[in-house]
Amino acid sequence: MKAAPFAYCRPDSVDEAVDVLAGGDAKVLAGGQSLVPVLAMRLGRPGTLVDITRLPGLDSLVVQDGQLHVGAAVRQRRVERSAEVAAVPLVARALPFVGHRELRSRGTVCGSLAHADPAAELPAVAACLGASVVVRGPGGERVVAAADFVTGAMTTAVGPDELVTGVRFPVAGAGEGFGFAELARRHGDFALAGVAVRVRGEAATLAAFGVSDRPVVRELTLDPDPTEAGLRPVTDALAAEVVDTDGDAHGSRGYRVRLLGVLAAREIVRAHREAHR
Fold it and tell me: What CATH number corresponds to the domain at position 33?
């Protein structure tokens, strides 16, 4: 199929882009790796596409004030290959799992957040780290906590007249450890289940994805020397609580519960060892 007819707008400023969005029936085009297939299958029929790829300031990638600032036009592949991403190890570990290299060469970090696919890696990583998403609208700029940003499957806290302009990931501090894992049928496929983990001292933050309509974040208190076997009762119970998908042809709910329990225990132990190394 081909996309339904639409108007194309390439604004010269963020304010102009917001004005076009405020007119209604418009969608933002950044990388297009999620939007273009939706248009091609006519699952979406916006009247106007607002191309933000060349807007001044949205290509910023910098570590500043204890945060990694990623502009809305920054490609995933650029972040993956940058020196700056070393400041946020969890982002560096997750990016190679985002689609395929060719898709990451066009797709943007903020675009993945805004698309809010339940099986996407970056929304879970952002929620796990306590990142902040910067949004601009007619009323000015506001900052949304990543944990509150995704409100449901393919749904976010961004209004139809608002534009995501960037995301801020806190840089890793001393004594922090991280873990990331997912299982998919093939590399680049949507995850059947996945986890992002951050450990500080004996406190662990875990974000699960691919098992609900949005990333699910839980806080755990660990023993001084946790083991996978010792954690399994805890992670199995957590998985049984958070997995609310009915399953599909690729895996039942029970399979995802077991998978999440195994991945969570393994990555928590890995992150704890790294934090205490």
Answer: 3.30.43.10
